[in-house]
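Review form for a predicted model. The reviewer records the input and the model, then writes brief findings.
Reviewer: anonymous (R2)
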Amino acid sequence: MSDWYGEVRGNGFVARRITGLTEYQTRNGCLQEVRADTHGELWLLCDAQSRLAERVGVAESMRRLK
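Model under review:
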């Protein structure tokens, strides 16, 4: 979770992105923060969100090439 900062919060875990998202990434489903009940779940959510942000970033790049 190198792009994320995680912490225990209440009965679960919260992670926030260290780096920001573009407006395009945010509009297309990328989250700045995720919450989970377990550390393993948090890791998976962060990984999924990181991959989504990468793919959406590629789409954003393709859009600029038009």
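Findings: Residues 39-65 form the longest helix (27 residues).
Further findings: The two ends are 33 Å apart (CA to CA).
Recommendation: see findings above.
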